[in-house]
Write a structure and sequence with these properties.
A: about 110 residues, mainly beta, 7-stranded mixed sheet, 4-stranded antiparallel sheet, about 0% helix, B: 11 strands
């Protein structure tokens, strides 16, 4: 069964540093998403991406965040200057008309 | 505005007992409802979607538009069902943003 692949599985970074989280969506999917889950809290939507542009973003997705699909396969989330409160599990997902598939997540720890 | 409410943060049952995880939603249109399961902080896996009306791992969920509920049920719980369960909603299309409930941690005791 096709999978959404995320790398790295765990990243530790210092506050103020830039991080890039990588995702390889399922190849024939057209919509891509980033969600995050702070420990002990619910899964929150960050951004959706379609046709090489952001289709929707949440209030969490401020100027610190950006997404890119630099080639035909990767979908990246960049956090420009990380804060302690960015520590969370970040999930990538892609979808086709009948549902989502999530990646296994990247655990980001900001110290 | 849309909202998904899972009133129980924790739910414990014994193996073989029936289990029901509650989910209520608020949305003025016609939503698509889903249940996702997350085992030990692994990836979110789709368990059920209301449009397919299927039963996965013995779980079923019926959309009750009158009560705006989408409760997840299983007649005989198994230890391997212990996991975090999230109810989620998409507004009117399966290609939109997912709105999640806060999740219910189900523990099935032997």
């Amino acid at each position: 069964e096709p999978e959404v692949t995320q790398t790295p599985s765990h990243q530790v970074t210092q506050m103020g540093q830039e991080v890039i989280l990588r995702c390889v969506p399922i190849s024939n999917h057209l919509y891509f998403y980033w969600y995050r889950q702070i420990l002990g809290q619910k899964v929150e939507f960050l951004v959706s991406f379609y046709n090489n542009e952001i289709s929707e973003k949440s209030e969490i997705f401020d100027d610190q965040f950006s997404v890119e699909r630099p080639d035909g396969s990767n979908f990246t989330l960049k956090i420009r200057s990380t804060k302690l409160e960015d520590s969370a599990m970040y999930f990538c997902a892609s979808s086709e008309p009948y549902g989502y598939t999530f990646g296994s997540g990247t655990r980001l720890t900001v110290v | 505005a849309q909202r998904v409410t899972q009133p129980e943060k924790l739910l414990s049952v014994f193996k073989g007992a029936p289990v029901e995880l509650k989910c209520n939603y608020s949305y003025s249109g016609s939503p698509e409802l889903f249940w996702y399961v997350q085992y030990s902080r692994q990836r979110l896996q789709l368990l059920l979607r209301h449009i397919s009306r299927e039963s996965i791992k013995g779980f079923t969920a019926d959309l009750n538009k009158g009560e705006t509920s989408f409760h997840l049920k299983k007649p005989f719980a198994q230890e391997e069902d212990s996991a975090m369960y999230y109810c989620a909603l998409i507004r009117g299309s399966t290609l939109g943003r997912l709105y999640f409930g806060r999740g219910t941690q189900l523990t099935v005791w032997p």
